[in-house]
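[Solved] Which block belongs to which protein?

Original post:
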Amino acid sequence: VPMKKNDAPKIESAQKIPPEGDRTLEDPKKKNGSPGTKVLTALICLAVLTYFGVQIYNAYADPLISAVAYSYQVEDTVSVTGFLVRDELVLEDSGGGLLRLTRSEGERVSAGGRVAQIYSDQASLDRQMEIDKLQTQLDQLNYASEAASASEAALQLDSQIAERLVSMRRAVTSDRLDTASDSVKELEALVLRRDYTYTDAEELKAQTADIQSKLSALKAQSAGSSRKVTAPKAGLYSAVVDGYETVLTPQMLETLTPSVLSNLKPSGVSSDLGKLVLGDTWYYAATLSAADAKEIDEGSTETLRFAKGVDRDLNVTVQSISAEENGRVTVIFRGRTYLAQLTLLRQQSADVVLSSVSGIRVPQQAIRVNENGVTGVYCVVGVEARFKPVKVVWSDDNEYALVRGEGVDATALRPGDQVILSAGGLEDGAVVSYTG
């Protein structure tokens, strides 16, 4: 049966199916979060924000501020300038020749002891210097020969060399070049001695015999070519003569006034031989204002600190205070110690320490009075604030104070403790967040 054109069968278009890889499956339960999850998330965020907010507020509103407590000393001093006075004897020698000193600065010399050697000519002096050099080498060889163990001797010498280096550095730092020069000589001798320690025994004997032979010949040649200068009295030797030896004497101190002291001039006395400092007492004459001198009493013991030359404080006695002259007085201090270190000093600046207080330095802001009326400071101990009672021994009323710990064991304030200056909710046992 023929079909009509309009009677053709209708074929519905097939549904388009996506490829396998483009298919997605959605869980309708995860498409929108549940109300419980949203609430929990909001609570966590709120807690985090609250925590950081509290920390920021505490940091800016009432932060923990601390400082280190440390040992300190406060002194009441008066700065002065004066002259050192000693009983001194200038050595004189009328003979000519080449002078060689045999004593070091500040060395004690007995009566009749040699202080210098005078040689007739340069050849005699050179011969003596060669004798001294050979004698030093002979001493080193004898030491090496008598050493029981080379290794033990070397270790001992290493220690002595290190000590001598420290002594030399200390002498240079304190401007005692005379002492430094002696240290250099001793150091050279120690180094030579150490070099000989590992030398063969037979070689040591041969070198010793050779040096002894040379020494004998040189000593025979030098006989009668020099003469020695001896000390007429016992005392400390000093190579420096500055002209004040006859101007400043212990006998004229009782009548010394500020005007006389300020107009002192050295005499023309000089000597290449040096001088002797007699006795064990020295004096320091200084001019002070009458107001400062009121804090000093005759016969009292004071502390004198020289600006240079001596690296320690000296205990002195106030021997006398002159009458006032134009608002100033002359004070005579008397000392009996460390004279050997003062032989090179004459006009010298110094501090007179009238009083001193020692304690633990803390800021004024750290000192508090607790509920029981006890004065103390709070310290950071671990993560807690601990109250430590103290006694204030000095205060400047502004910045800091000196205190002493009143507690025992763990409650006592000690140098190095972290004292609290500012913190919120400060009380004994309170937990603090210490960050430095």
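(Second protein starts here: sequence line, then its structure tokens.)
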Amino acid sequence: MGKMSQTVPPILSVHPSRALVDEKFKVVVENLPSGSPVTLHSLHHSEENDFWEAFGHYISDHRGTVCVAEDLSFGGTYTGKEPMGLLWSMRPVPGSRKGLRLRKRDVCSPMLVKVSAYSGHVAEGFTEQAPLASVLIERWYMAPGVQRIDIREKGVRGTLFIPTGPGPFPGLLDMWGGGGGLVEYRSALLASRGYVSFVLEYFAPGEQRSADVELNIFETGFGILKDHPQVIPDKVGIFGLSLGSTVTMYLAAESTVIKPRCCVCVSGSHGYARGGPLKGVFELMFKNSHMIRVDENNYQIWRDMGLGLTSDLSKKVDVGKINCPMLLVNGEDDQNWPTVECAEDIARMMQAAGKEHLLTRVQYPNTGHLIEPPYSPHFRATMFIMHNAKRKFIMLWGGQTKPHSDAQEDAWRKILSFLQHNLYCSPTLKAKM
């Protein structure tokens, strides 16, 4: 095996070094001795002050080069030919707090990732040895020129993201799940892809809403988006995750004010009790809380709580009333909610109403509940704070890292394609960093 050259040090390059989070990069190391073991390592210091890392073990080729997009990793947090493994296989460094989840809070700044090359096949103690070379890269949710606007009006709280360019654009009302609060990163990314996106904080952690107030909030929020001068008023869709999907289906079926052009529902269900989507869902959950199980790690499994829903018509949104195209995206290993069973029941109900042509279903094996934008780390179990903010525990979401990550990449491509087909007549102009 050759020795490291003293005259020409190894060169590490990442292209592009500044990109949107859903864009691929290419990592190459050159000027290595041929046939030498090398470790590629990524490190991110999160806004919560935790460190996340991933690494792969490579052997340089006859030219003394490693190309992550083309070469196999023989060990590490991922194996095989994985161009983006240094991102999607990230995990908290050994000794970190339990139940961590990596989420960008300040979307106006990039996620900074340090990519380094180390001599040999290293599996621990990265901070204790000097890398051969390092590059700091930027991963953005917000493309240059995207505007971020705080909305606090008519009892509605949220953030509006407007794409760069003259407009007007299609709009998306973006709704997250049962953890509550304002989660902006998906909306920022959707705006970077050409949609005016309005993420709604429909309840703060610890807040209860009455049914009449909550419906009014969604209708007002949809109206604020639809009436914005940069939005094409008849091309507004709704995008929901988890509880946000239940709300999405409820609004599309029951609201006389909201007429979405299309809906995307990720890891959602059509179950709720009468009296509004939020109040009803929480009542239903408390009623069935005796059905919560725990696994061998004492992580909570909630999926059984929702299993009875499909047999009780009074606890379901009448999805047969939905009159717009709807995309359902689910993971077959969802441990939080029986989303696949719900999707099958939704398909039956829509077929009975003669609406099956409006429904597109995608589901992925070994994939959990938290289907995020591509190259986000997989979170099988994370700390969860109940909406009344009095209980903290680790929730099991499900999924296996590699298939879950593949699903996130494929689902995002299908979601963008579905939105483009239903909200744009002409091909969308893709933002580039």
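Accepted answer:
You had them paired correctly. Confirming on the second one: The two ends are 40 Å apart (CA to CA).
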